[in-house]
Amino acid sequence: MPLSSRFTMPGQVRAVATSDPSGPLTVTGYGPNPLATVITRVDLSGKVEWQRTYPGTGKPQSRLATGGALWLAYPDRDGQLLEGVLPDGSTGPTAHPECRADEEIGAFVLLDDGFVISWVSGSRMVRRERSRPSSVPGPRVARYTREGECLWSTPIALGAVSFPGVVEMG
């Protein structure tokens, strides 16, 4: 089935994933509110099969597992949450990785038995602050089980990734 030449998605698309070339596509982005993450499942003709909205930080992140579940990272009232969204749009497994209240997920890797997460200083929304923090936590990388239990954690020395002439890295 060829992909329709064009179809419109709501808001800004940040990631597109599929487990099969014949579709469907799972699109991660945000809608009119950039602080709300929107997951949309769409067939190759552009027909929306389902759509779900989650709290967000304006930086939606997702990873597709080999079984078809889309793992989404988002903030909740107790920190950060990784939630599996099943192919039919229902909620699958979740993990609540241990973190500090002033951290948010910078990026994450999905492994067969868990996750590797890079933690960064949380945005003001995550910290629930209106002004600059007195101290900012340094970045770190941690390894977790699928249930969110921390196996190890280590700080990242930013000096090792900074070079003369580099203005910005993402």
List the helices and strands and how they pair.
Blueprint: E1 12-17, E2 25-30, E3 36-42, E4 48-55, E5 61-64, E6 70-76, E7 79-85, E8 91-95, E9 103-111, E10 114-121, H1 124-127, E11 140-145, E12 150-155
Antiparallel strand pairs: 1-2, 2-3, 3-4, 5-6, 6-7, 7-8, 9-10, 10-11, 11-12
Distance between the first and last residues' Cα: 36 Å
Mean pLDDT: 84
- The helix-strand sequence is EEEEEEEEEEHEE
The outline comes out as: globular
Q: Strand portion, in percent?
A: over 45%
Alpha-beta classification: mainly beta
Q: pLDDT below 50 for ≥5 consecutive residues: which ranges?
A: none
What's the total number of strands? 12
Main beta sheet strand tally, sense and closure: 4 strands, antiparallel
Question: Nearest-angstrom radius of gyration?
Answer: 17 Å
Spatial ordering of strands, largest sheet? 1-2-3-4
Helix % is: under 10%
With helices defined by DSSP (H or I, 4 residues minimum), what is the helix count? Answer: 1
